[in-house]
Amino acid sequence: MVEELQYREFRVPLGPGLHAYPDELIRQRVGHDGHPEYQIRWLILRRGEDGEGSSSQVDCKAEHILLWMSNDEIYANCHKMLGENGQVIWPSQETAGEAGTLDKSVLGEMETDVKSLIQRALRQLEECVGTIPPAPLLHTVHVLSAYASIEPLTGVFKDPRVLDLLMHMLSSPDYQIRWSAGRMIQALASHDAGTRTQILLSLSQQEAIEKHLDFDSRCALLALFAQATLSEHPISFEGIQLPQVPGRLLFSLVKRYLHVTSLLDQLNDSAAEPGAQSSSAPEELSGERGRLELEFSMAMGTLISELVQAMRWDWASSREGPSAPSSCSIFQPQLADAGQGLPPTQAQPSLRRSRRFRPRSEFASGNTYALYVRDTLQPGMRVRMLDDFEEISAGDEGEFRQSNNGVPPVQVLWESTGRTYWVHWHMLEILGFEEDTEDMVEAEEYQGAVVSGGQGVALPSWRWKPMSELYAMPYVLPEDEDTEESEHLTQAEWWELLFFIKKLEGPDHQEVLQILQENLDGEILDDEILAELAVPMELAQELLLALPQRLDDSALRDLLNCRVYRKYAPEALAGQPAYPSLLEAQAKPQESADAARVEAKEPLTPCPSSPLRHLVEGYGPAGKIILDLEQALRSEGTQESEVRSLLLLLQRQPQPFLVLMQSLDTPAANKALHLAILRILIRLVDFPEALLLPWHEAMDACMACLRSPDTDREVLQELIFFLHHLASVSRDYAVVLNQLGARDAISKALEKHLGKLDMAQELRDMVFKCEKHAHLYRKLTTNILGGCIQMVLGQIEDHRRTHRPINIPFFDVFLRYLCQGSSVEVKEDKCWEKVEVSSNPHRAGKLTDRNPKTYWESNGSTGSHYITLHMHQGILIRQLTLLVAGEDSSYMPARVVVFGGDSTSSLNTELNSVNVMPSASRVILLENLNRFWPVIQIRIKRCQQGGIDTRIRGLEVLGPKPTFWPVFREQLCRHTRLFYMVRAQAWSQDIAEDRRSLLHLSSRLNGALRQEQNFADHFLPDNEAAQALGKTCWEALVSPLVQNITSPDEDGISPLGWLLDQYLECRDNPQSRAAAFSSRVRRLTHLLVHVEPCEVPTAVVATPRPKGRNRSHDWSSLATQGLPSSIMKNLTRCWQAAVEEQVNSFLTSHWQDDDFVPSYCEHFNNLQTSSSELFGPRAAFLLALQNGCAGAFLKLPFLKAAHVSEQFARHIDQGIQGSRIGGAREMEMLAQLQRCLETVLIFSGLEIATTFEHYYQHYMSDRLLSLGSSWLEGAVLEQIGPCFPNRLPQQMLRSLSTSEELQRQFHVYQLQRLDQELLKLEDTEKKIQVGHEASGKEHERACKEEAEDAGGAAAADVTEEEEEEEEEGLYYEGAMPKVSVLVLSPRCWPIASIRHTLNPRTCLPSYLRGTLNRYSNFYNRSQSYPALEQGPQRRLQWTWLGRAVVQFGDLTLHVSTVQMWLLLYLNDRKAVSVESLLALSGLSADMLNQAIGLLTSSRGPLDLHEQKDVPGGVLKIRDDSQEPRPRWGTEWLIPPQTYLKAEDEEGRNLEKRRNLLNCLIVRILKAHGDKGLHIDQLVCLVLEAWQKGPCPPRGLVSGLGRGSACSSTDVLSCILHLLGKGTVRRHDDRPQMLSYAVPVTVMEPHTESLNPGSSGPNPPLTFHTLQIRSRGVPYASCTVTQSFSTFR
After folding, report:
1. Across residues 1559-1578, what is the average pLDDT?
2. DSSP codes of every residue in 913-956
3. Full strand arrangement of the beta sheet holding 1573-1574
C-alpha cells in the first residue's frame, strides 16, 4: 500500500541521504505552557525514496517519527498545514465504504442481531458439557465472526459482554472454540490499529488471564499484538543476538507494554479536544493529570524492570557499576588520544605536543603509523612514549638516536631513566625538534597538578599559561539549589523509591508505610499524598535499610542497580549488601563450573548426594535449598508440600536453580553430577510451580551438553527425556529450543548414536513444529524492545519541550544498557559469513583451521591473488592478522594491500598497505576500524624474492560483540536532530521577523544546551554517548541558527551583523541599558564559538611569509589548523562584514583629518578589543578582523588610498624621529609607533602596499640621510616588512651596511697608499746617501752636481707624482676632518633625492676634495673585474645629500651638506650673494632657500641682507657685537622633513601608471582568450610591453615623470586589483592560470584626463575612464581578498 507524499518540499535532513518529511497531523493537546501542541508524523526516507525525479508515492510502512510541535514550529517548518486563519488543518474524515452502502435501518437490525448472538453464545458456552463443543455454538461464533468483519458494526462489539465471551472461548479446553475466538479477534482487529490495540488492552487487563490461556490462545493474542506493532516501531536489530524469551514472559511484557501505551495516550488526551470546553475545575484536572503521571511512571518502571530481566541485561551488567561520564561539556569534542581507563591525573601526562606531525589516532592501523614514524623521524628529534613497554612508561619523553633492523628497532635516550632504551616504531609520538614543540599546559591541568599534590610534582611556573577562555559555560554549571530542597529527595528520586514500596505486599507494605507515617507526624498517606511527599535524606536512608529485607531477588536486584540506592544508601549497606547470595550468584556461574570440574577429578564417594554437595558448597542457605529439594524428591512418597514450599523459595531466589542447570555445561567426566541434576529436573517439571522458574535462562547449558561430542550416552538420554518432558508440559520451551538450534543438535546426536536415543525423534519433531512460533517470538521481542525505545525517546522529547524532569524509575538503567559497549571479542567465524579466495577454493578452509602447519596456496599470475571476507552485519574489525611463515621462501608475501567496500564490485577504498618483512610470522593488516565494511579484500601484490604464487598460513579476525548502542545511537540522533532542526527553524523565523529577538537567543540556547547537558549527566552512562548526543544537538540546533542569522537579507545585512554593529556602536556607552545589551551579545557570541578550540594566534611578525613561488598575499597563514567548521566560517564571515562596514564608515568620514592615523589606530584597537570580548583570543576572528579592514581599504579610490598610505608613512616617520627625544616622551612615542605598526600590517598583500612603500621609501631616505640610521629602523622593517612588495626599504638599509663596510675598506686603502709613499721617500734618501759615500772627498764637487741632478730628477719624479695626486686631491697635512661616504643605489633610493649632483672641484675645499677623489679612485678599483672589463663599470656621482658637523667658535652646528658648503664658502669671504651661490652650486632655488632659511634664523650664524640690486639678497656672518649671544653649545640646523601630498602631481602619476598597467593586463588577457596565461608569463609580457610599446604610448609613459618606472611587483599589484574587481579570473583547476572575465562596464561620472596636456576627459576607449565592477560576473568576489602564491 502506498500513499501520497504531500509535503515533500518541507524536507529536514537527518543524515547522509536521509530526510524527514511531515506527513499528517495525528492529535492535539494543550502544552505545559497552556498553548496547543500538535503531534505530527514525519516520514523518514532515504535518497531515492522521496519520489524525486519520478513519483511521490511512498510505502505507508516507512519509518516515521512522531513529534509534538507548537503552532510557531508548524508555521516555520510546514506552513501548508495551517489554514488561512493560521489554525492547523485537520485531515478530512473519509466516510467508510460500508457505511455509505448500509441503510440506517438495516444497520440497526444488524446491531440487534449481534447483541442477541452474543447473548446466545454466552448461554451456549455455559451449557456446554464435555470436551466436544456443540455444533450450534460453533455456528453462532462463526456468524459473530462474519459480523465482526463489518466495520460499521465495530462499536457494537465494544460491549463488555464481548470481552467475557472472548475470555470464555480463549480459556475453553476445546481447540475449535479457541480457534474461533482467534478468528473473531482477527476480524475485529482488521479495521484499524486503534480497535486492535483496544481489544488487546481490554483482554490483557482481565484478571488472571494467563491462567485461562493455553499455548495456542496465547500465541493468537501475541500474533495479534505483533501485527498491531508491525509498522509502529520499525527498528531493525539485525546482527544483534536477542535472548530467547518464553511466551509466558512475552505475554507479560505485552500486558505491561499495552498498559503503558494506554496511560501514555490518556496523558496526551487528558487535555480537551480541539474546540471542546472542559467542565472540570483546574485543580481537578491537575490532580487527575498528576495521578496519571504517577501511574504511568510506575507502569513504565515495571516494564523496564521486566524487559531488563527478559533481555538478561541485569546479569550481563558490570559488577563495578556504570561508569559516569565526566562533568565536561558534551558539546566540546574530546581529544581522540586522551588516555582511556586512566585516573584523571594520568589521562594526559604529557605537557607538549607538536602541530607538525600526525598523531597515531589519524591512522587506520598501527602498522601504517609505524611506517609513517619510521619515514619521518630524524636523529635529534624529541619523541614521546605512547604505550608502556618494559622499563619505559607511557608519557615518557626522550631524544631519538638511531634505528636498525633489530627488534625493537628504535633507540631513544629517555629523560626518565637517563639512558638509551630500544622500543618499537608504533609506540612513539613525534614531537619534533625542540623549536617545533609547544607548551600545552592549560589552566585546569595546572590546578589539577596542584590539587593532586603528593601524586606528582607540581608543574613548573614557566610551563603555565593563562586561561584563554574566561567565559564559563552556563549550561555546565549546576543551577542554584535551595538549601531546603537539597536536603530532600527530588521527585524523580522519591518516585523511584516509591516504586519499590509499591512492590511490597501485605504486612511488608504496611510496615514501610508505618515508617513513613512515623517520620511525617502520623499523616494519613494515600496515593495522591504519596506522590507529592517531600522526603528527607535521613528518611530515605532509613527506607533503604528496610527495603532489602522485604524484597524478592528480582526487585532487590533492581534496587541495588537504581540511582537512588547508589546515591543515598548508607555506606555500610553499600559496602556489604544485605543479600550476598544474590550478588555471589551473579558472579559464581563460572566458579560453580570450576567446582564441578574439580569434582570430576575427585574419586566418587558412596554417598549419592556428594556431587551436589560439592557443587553447592559455599552458597550457604541458598545451597541448602538445592540439597533439601533433592532430598524431598528422592524420598519415598515425594513430599509435595515440602517441594512446593522450596519451589516458592526458588521463585523468589532463582539463583540456586540457575546454578543447578548451568552445571550441565561442565566436562563430560561429571557424569554422576549430570545424572543427578537431570533426574532432579525431570521430577521438577511435574510440579506446576516449577514452570514459573526461569528455565529459559539456563537452556544454553542444556544445548552445550547436547552438542558436546564427549557427552556420555546415558547422560544424553536423560537430557533428551528431560527436554521432551519439559517441551511437552510447556510448548514455550520447545520454541526456546527451536531458537537455540536444538533441531540440528538432536539430528547430529541421532547420527552419532545410530538413532538409538529414545524420544529424540519425537523431540526433534516437536521442536520443528514450533518454527513459526519461534519466528513470532523473535518478532515480538523486537517489537517490544523497539516500542520501549520509542517511548523512551518520546519521554526525552517531552523532557526537552517541557523542561520538566524525567520521573520514570530505572530510566537511567535502561539507557545504560542501550548505550553500553562490549569488550568481548568475537573471533573468526563469528565475524565473517564466508571466505572467498582467488584460486584453489577447495583449500580455503586451511585459512581458518587454526593450524599453522597447513596453508592455502594460490595459483595465478603475480599480483592477482586475493582473499575476500564477507563480514557479519555491524562487525567493526578490531584486528585483522595474516599468518605467514619465513620457511615459505618465495611463496611468502612481501606486500599486502587491504581494500574495503559495500560489495565485491565496489572495493575501491584502500584501508591499509603493509610491507612484510622476511622474518615476520604475524602481519597485522587492520586495527580498530571505526566503520563497518561489508566486504574486505586482502590482495597480495608481491611475494618475497620475486615469487609468483603465495602461501598464507592462516587468517585471524577479531571484532567487538554487536551491541544495541549503534541502533540506539541512530534513533537518538534522528529524534534529536529532527526536534532541534524544527526548533531552530522556528527561532530563525522569529529572528527574521524581528531582529531584536536575537537578543533572547542566548538564553534560549543556554536553556536548550543546559537541558541536554543535565540529561547526559544524569542518564547517559559514558562520554561516548554524551558526545554523540552533544554533537547531534549542536549540529541540529546551532548550525542552522548560525547559518540563518549570518545570512544577509534583502538589504544585504544579516541579523547577527546588525547585532554586532549595534554592539560596536554602544560598546563605550556607560548607560546600564547599553551594558545589559552588550552583555547579552557577548554571552551569545561566546556560546556560539565555545565548541571550537580557543587558540591564541601567534604574532604576525613571528610568522614570516615564505619567499619565492610559495609566497602568499593573504592572511590564511594565521588560520588555526582544523578550522573552520561551518559555524566558524559563517561567524567569521559575519564578523568580517561588520568590521569592514565599521572601518569603511570611519575611512569615509575621517580620511582627511589631521589626526587620522592616531584615530584609526584607536579605532582598530577598539575593534581588536571587541573581537576579544566577543569571541575570545581565537585566531579565526582576528583573521576576520584583518580581512575586514583590508576589505575596507580595497574599497577606497586610488587617490584616497594613496592619501591614507601617505598619512601612515608620515606618522611612522614622525614616530621614529620622535623616539630620539629620550625620557618619558620617547617611551610614549614608541608605544604609539607600535600601535601604528600593528595596523599597518593590514596593507600586506593589498594594492595600497605599493603606494605605502613609495611614500615610506621617500621619508626613510630623508630620515637616514639627515639623521642617520638607528636600531629602530631595522626593528620597524622587521615588523612591517611584508607591507613592502618591492622590499625597497630593506634594500636601503642593506646599502647603508654596505657603505659602512666600504668605508672601513677605504680607511685601510688610505693607509696602504700612505705607506707606499713613505716607502718611496725612504728608498730615494737611501740612494742619495750611498752615492755620497762612493764618490770620495776628491770628487766632492762633481758628486755634488750629480747629486743635485739626481735630486732634481727625484724632485721631478715627486712633482709628477704630486701632479698625479692632484688629480685625486692633495693629501691634507693639517687636522683632517672625518669624512664618511654613503654609496646610494638608484635602484632602491628615491630618484628625487639624488637628482641634484655635486661638483667637488668647484664646491668643496681641497682637503675635502682630495678625500672624495681618493674615495672615487678606491671605489672604481673595487668595482673593476678583469673578466668583465668589456661591460660598463660603476661610477660614483656625488650628490648634495648628507650631513656635517661644523665648529663655529665654541658653537657646534649640525648642518646638511649644502649648509656646510655655504659656511665653508664664507670662510674666505665677508659676503656672498644668493644668486652667485645658485650659479655655483647648480641647486634649485627651493633647496638652497630651505638651507639658507635655518642658517639665517635666530639660531643660525648668518644674516641675509636684502639689496635692491642683488636678487635674493646677500649672506654675511652675523656680528654678535650688537646683539651678543652665547657662542657655545650645540644647534641643530638640518632642514626638517618635507612631506608629500598624494593629491599632487606625483600621486596622480601613480594612479595613471596603475591605470595603464590595468589596460595592458586586460588587453593581453583578451588576446589569449579563454585559454588564459600563467601568472609569471603575464607579468613578463606586461613588463615587455611597458618598455617597448606600442601600448602604452611612449609619450604617456614619459609624462608620468617619477612614476614611469615599473616593476614586477607593480604588475602583480594591478593583477590583484583586477581579481578583486572581477575583471580577471582564476581557473578552478589551475589557480595560477588567469584569463579575462567579461565585466559590466559603467562610465565614471568624474575622471581625470590621462594626458597631462589635455584639459577634458579622455575618450571612452581609454582604460582609466571605465569603472570595472563585479556585478553579474560569476567569478567576482566583493568580500574575499584575492592573492597569489607564485612570485618570480
Report:
1. 84
2. EEEPPTT-SEEEEEE--SS--SEEEEEEEEEGGG-SS-EE-EEE
3. 1573-1574, 1633-1636, 1624-1626
Phi, psi of 577 (to 5 degrees): -55, 150
The band of 1584, judged by pLDDT with boundaries at 50, 70 and 90, is confident
Which strands sit side by side in the sheet containing 879-883, from one edge to the other?
825-827, 954-960, 879-883, 922-927
Burial of 1391 (0-12, 13-18, 19+ CB in 10 A): exposed
Residues 578-603 have pLDDT tens digits of 444 443 444 444 444 444 444 444 44
143's grid cell? 456468524
Q: From its phi and psi, is residue 1525 left (phi > 0), alpha (psi between -120 and 50) or beta?
A: beta
Which of the listed ranges 38-42, 209-213, 888-892, 1282-1286 does the model predict with the highest average pLDDT? 888-892
Count how many Cα atoms sit within 13 Å of the Cα of residue 304 in the half-sphere of its side chain.
Answer: 26
Cβ–Cβ under 8 Å, residues 1054 and 1134: yes
Q: Using an 8 Å Cβ cutoff, are 912 and 368 in contact?
A: yes
CA distances from 1258 to 1204, 1390, 1394, 1607, 1610 (A): 15, 6, 11, 17, 17
Total Cβ atoms within 10 A of residue 526: 8
Report helix, strand or coil for 841: helix
Neighbours of 191 (CB within 10 A): 17
Mean pLDDT throughout 517-545? Answer: 79
User: What's the rounded Cα separation, in Å, for the pair 884 and 923?
Assistant: 8
Q: In degrees, to the nearest 5, what angle opens at C-alpha 1209 toward C-alphas 1207 and 1214?
A: 90
Helix (H, G, I), strand (E, B) or coil at 530: helix
Distance CA 694, CA 684 (A): 13
Q: Mean pLDDT score of the chain, rounded to an integer?
A: 74
Least reliable range by pLDDT among 365-369, 573-577, 1193-1197, 1288-1292: 573-577
C-alpha 190/C-alpha 185 separation (Å) is 9
Q: Judge whether 1256 and 1209 are in contact, CB under 8 Å.
A: yes
Per-residue HEC secondary structure of 201-261 comes to HHHHCCCCHHHHCCHHHHHHHHHHHHHHCCCCCCCCCCCCCCCCCCHHHHHHHHHHHHHHH
Chain centre to alpha carbon of residue 90: 43
- Could you give the CA distance from residue 1388 to residue 1321 in angstroms, rounded to a whole number? 45
Q: Among the listed ranges 196-210, 272-286, 868-882, 1018-1032, which one has the minimum average pLDDT value?
A: 272-286
Arithmetic mean of pLDDT, 224-242: 69
If we measure between CA atoms, which residue out of 1602, 1605, 1601, 1616 comes closest to residue 1561?
Answer: 1616
Say what the pTM is: 0.71
pLDDT in tens, 1218-1256: 877 666 777 888 888 888 888 888 888 888 888 888 888
Of 1617 and 834, the one with more pLDDT:
834
| HSE of 1623, CA atoms in CB hemisphere, 13 A | 22
Cβ density class 887-924: b for 16+ within 10 Å, e for less: ebeebbbbebbbbbbeeeeebeeebbbbebeeebeebb
What is the distance between the alpha carbons of residues 1305 and 1418, in angstroms, rounded to a whole number? 9
The grid cell for 1573 is: 596565461
Question: Would you give the distance in Å from CA 1506 to the centre of its chain?
Answer: 81
Quote the cell numbers at residue 719.
537430557
H or E element: which one contains 300? helix 282-310
Question: Maximum distance among all alpha carbons in the chain?
Answer: 189
Q: Cell numbers 663599470 label which residue?
A: 1433
Closest CA to 34 of 286, 279, 290: 286
The DSSP bridge pattern shows strands 1528-1532 and 1450-1456 to be parallel
CA distance 479 to 466: 27
Cβ(1416)–Cβ(1399) under 8 Å? no
Number of helices followed by number of strands (H, E) in the chain: 60, 35
